[in-house]
Amino acid sequence: MSASAGPSAHTDDRPLELSALALTALLSAIWGGSFVAIKVGLFDMPPLGAAALRFGVTALVLLALAWYQRVQLRFGWNELKILGLLGLLFCYGNMAVYLGTALTTSGRSAVFFSAQPVFIALLAPFFLPGDRLTARKVYGLGLAFSGIVVLFSAQLGGGLTEAIMGDAIVLSSALTIGVSGIITKRVAGRIHPVALVCWQTWIAWPILTVCSWMFEADQPFLLSPRVLVSIAYLSVISAAFGFVAYAWLIQRHSPTRVASLTFLTPVFAVLFGWLLLSEHMGVVQLLGVAGVCVGIYIVNSSRASRSAATREAGPVLRQEKADATG
Fold it and tell me: Tell me, what DSSP letter sits at residue 4?
């Protein structure tokens, strides 16, 4: 990830190469571990306070990274308006995850939060030239999301009124993050990924701090060793590295294809729960994992792109043949 902003907003809808697949899978594993880290941090501090501390640390880390890489952080009014919008979307998206999960179960929250690739796939054809919503992508995304539902099927119960409200809040977060992903792709070549996430954290953490002070002043806020470990993981590895790498990937590849791999995030969360917390992992959960993996493979396989490339190249080849014989 060099200091140059990089590619244009036009989407090259080819399948992801192996390095991009590996990086996105790594990010999904990191974010899957974030659910455990968040749960650990909330033992000793309230949700909004924990989020404020997390992104405050992230802002400092990214500021140091921007200085080291000599990344441009000063922008004109047009870019500042975009960064301001992304910052507000970033703030709401993270706040909604915490607040919505408090009202519903963790399993239901994971299912609805995992809808963000679906939103990106639906929005991308309208705003990103070249990112087509093919039947193959629809089938793959549907299969992957069905796998998520199966994976958490045992946790989808709960009180209807309060849980549905929490589901709606988490779903709005998924939509918000989907919109943010589209905007991130639109500003490719104009704003470096480090600057992009740096500005978002600068905007988000003061708002989260004020909200925590207003609504959580009577709740305990203890900087215990486990909280420090949780914040270090969430701010440096999950946010500073993870969000910047994700923005870098989206700016260089099809957002639909990149986002489809984030269906692996809850899969890794379940695997970590099984390995580290001895949580249940049965046949049904394994079927859900299989559905997610097959769906992701379908979205990122090359058949649809190859046929599309052939259709686009057809007129050019026919013209070249006519020129050669003419």
Answer: S
Alpha-carbon gap, residue 321 to 202, rounded angstroms:
56
**Burial class (CB within 10 angstroms; exposed 0-12, middle 13-18, buried 19+) of 283:** exposed
Beta strands in the chain (DSSP E): none
Q: Would you say how long the chain is, in residues?
A: 326
Inter-residue contact 145 to 115 (CB < 8 Å): yes
The pair of structure tokens assigned to 119 is 């939103």
Q: Give every CB contact of residue 135 below 8 A, 6+ residues apart in sequence.
A: 304
Q: Is the pLDDT of residue 52 over 60?
A: yes
Torsional sign, CA 262, 264, 268, 274? positive
pLDDT of residue 98: 75
Q: How far is CA 10 from the centre of its chain?
A: 20
Beta carbons within 8 Å of 193's beta carbon, 6+ residues apart: 1, 244, 245, 247, 248, 251
Contacts of 6 (CB under 8 A, 6+ apart): 188, 189, 192, 248, 251, 252
Angle at 81 between CA 80 and CA 85, to 5 degrees: 115
pLDDT at residue 67, as a whole number = 93
Is residue 219 over pLDDT 80?
yes
What burial letters (b/e) apply to 108-125, b meaning 16+ CB within 10 Å? bbbbbbbbbbbbbbebbb
- Of the candidates 305, 312, 310, 309, the one whose C-alpha atom is nearest the C-alpha of residue 140 is 305
Which two structure tokens, joined as six digits, stand for 132? 């087509």
Please check whether residue 128 is in contact with residue 253, taking contact to mean a CB–CB distance below 8 angstroms. no
Written as six digits, the tokens of 150 are 């199966």
